[in-house]
Amino acid sequence: MAYSVARRTKEIGIRMALGAARPDVVWMILRETLRLVVFGIAVGLAASCGFNLFLASMLFGVKSLDVASFLLATGMFLVVALFAGYLPARRATKVDPMIALRNE
After folding, report:
1. Is residue 11 within a helix (H) or strand (E), and if so which, with residue range?
2. Which of 22, 35, 43, 104 has a Cα at 20 to 30 A from 95?
3. Axis-axis angle for helices 22-50, 67-93 (nearest 10)
4. Residue 104, pLDDT score
5. Cα–Cα dist 88/81, whole Å
6. Number of domains in the chain
7. Cβ neighbours of residue 96 closer than 8 Å, sequence gap 6 or more
8. How far from chain centre, in Å, is Cα 20?
9. Which domain does 13 fall in, by range?
């Protein structure tokens, strides 16, 4: 996400020069992050349910389809992804729009 935001510095500078508020820019970047993470979580959950029988032979004392484990892992992925998206988003909003426009 840091690389993606760094590449979009000029676009973010133009948005802020035209009047976009800092929370709007942060939310724009977090939406992009969440879109990627939700897609990854959906693919991961589908794959893990597909390998349910294989996983059942490796898990001891836990049901093969343990909802609590899936929810905990999903929640952790979401928290880490939001943190990974928030830091570059916050850094991007601190850039002066005129400097971002002159950079290119």
Report:
1. helix 9-17
2. 35
3. 150
4. 58
5. 12
6. 1
7. 13
8. 21
9. 2-103
pLDDT tens figures, 41-100: 999 888 888 787 777 777 776 676 778 888 998 999 999 998 988 998 888 888 888 877
Lowest mean pLDDT among 8-12, 24-28, 81-85: 8-12
Phi and psi at 57, nearest 5°, equal -75, -15
User: pTM (2 decimals)?
Assistant: 0.76
User: Long-range contacts: 13-20, Cβ < 8 Å, 24+?
Assistant: 13/95, 13/96, 13/97, 13/98, 13/99, 13/100, 13/101, 13/103, 14/97, 14/100, 14/101, 16/93, 16/97, 16/100, 17/97, 17/98, 17/101
Residue among 45, 54, 103, 49 nearest 78 (CA): 45
Closest CA to 14 of 101, 82, 93: 101
